[in-house]
Write a structure and sequence with these properties.
The protein has 9 helices and 15 strands. It binds NADPH dihydro-nicotinamide-adenine-dinucleotide phosphate (NDP).
Length: 327
């Protein structure tokens, strides 16, 4: 029986503890496809899960890691055969089902998406759930008819994972992107991704007016809370905001004014249980609308042993771009 190394989170009297363990296939949960995991990543949610700063893990002991990419090792699912290159995002993996911080993963085949050419499995995890969610946000804006000629598109949490990839994709699609960050020292990095200009996130951390000067044709928001409320107040008539994150907070202290006086549309983006057709389309779009050279430039590689440290850093807002975990 194949042995593999994994991170395991155990429940303790005072909360939870992280252990590095050797497991066998019999330790895995149910599923009809077993995947040799080649890469995982550290998303913000993984940071909360591994540090225990958020109630992400709801079954113990659990292998964390909300996403992974690798090669099918064995399958009794008609859609998948050994050797297929696959990626998984969400479905409770790393929350209630063993996740990506392990040499092997077993899951229902319905949860998997094929890694599109010319992406490698490392590219798929440089994108990860953060980048995949950024693409879902861009698709949500397009679905509402947002076009480059409409005006400036704001991206909040710009230097983070969702933000970095949203900027790269939007810029490649011809949008004029304004990046909002608390790390102005990362301005060159953000412009390198394609941001036309960079602004201080403090501009969005002010008391919220029902309506403010309209400046944004659209926005991708990874931050939530007062920031999202201010973005809504500043969105142009008929503009669209795609909201996916809560890096600042889960609250939303807004009013109905942007919606009823400007027709602003607020679209929620949920990557975890996104319908299969949209998942496949998002990964296809990432393979054509994201410059892989730029992607490789915004990501770095770490080992499984580094995950607890990176998890603490991402929760503290100290990670730039994306971190790939090599299994
Ligand atoms: P990162 O930590 O990589 O990026 C978040 C960024 O938000 C930071 O880099 C920082 O950007 C900004 N930020 C952090 N703290 C604050 C604060 N207090 N006030 C204002 N801005 C802040 O995380 P990800 O990009 O991986 O994820 C971003 C968010 O999206 C998270 O909340 C995550 O949970 C959510 N998410 C949701 C998904 C879904 O399915 N809906 C899927 C994936 C992610 P800067 O330094 O540039 O200011």
């Amino acid at each position: 029986m194949t042995r593999f190394r994994a991170i395991q989170v155990n429940k303790t009297d005072s909360g939870q503890e992280v252990a590095f363990v050797d497991l066998t296939e019999s330790d895995l949960m149910d599923g009809d496809v077993t995947v040799a995991v080649e890469h995982s990543t550290v998303n913000y949610k993984d940071g909360l899960a591994v540090t225990g700063k958020g109630p992400i893990i709801r079954k113990f002991p659990l292998i964390p890691g909300i996403d992974f990419a690798g090669t099918v090792a064995s399958s009794s699912n008609a859609e998948w055969k050994p050797g297929d290159r696959v990626v998984l995002n969400g479905w409770g993996v790393g929350e209630t089902h063993h996740g990506g911080y392990a040499g092997l993963a077993r899951v229902p085949g319905d949860w998997l998406v094929r890694v599109p050419e010319p992406m490698t499995t490392a590219d798929a995890m440089a994108i990860g759930t953060a980048g995949y969610t950024a693409m879902l946000c861009v698709m949500a804006l397009e679905h509402e008819g947002v076009k480059p000629s409409d005006g400036d598109v704001l991206v909040t949490g710009a230097a983070g994972g969702v933000g970095s990839i949203a900027i790269a994709v939007l810029a490649k699609l011809g949008f004029k992107v304004v990046a909002s960050t608390g790390r102005l020292e990362e301005s060159d990095y953000l412009k390198g991704l394609g941001a036309a200009s960079v602004i201080d996130r403090k501009e969005f951390d002010t008391p919220v007016k029902p309506l403010a000067r309209a400046r944004w044709a659209a926005a991708v928001d990874a931050v939530g809370s007062v920031t999202l409320a201010n973005v809504l107040s500043q969105t142009n008539p008929e503009g669209t905001v795609a909201a996916c994150g809560l890096a600042q907070g889960m609250d939303l202290p807004t009013s109905v004014a942007p919606f009823i006086l400007r027709g602003v549309k607020l679209i929620g983006v949920n990557s975890v249980t996104c319908p299969k057709a949209r998942r496949i389309e998002a990964w296809r779009r990432l393979s054509v609308d994201l410059d892989l050279a730029k992607l490789r430039g915004l990501s770095r590689h770490v080992k499984l042993d580094d995950v607890p440290r990176i998890a603490a850093d991402i929760v503290a807002g100290r990670i730039r771009g994306r971190v790939v975990v090599d299994l």
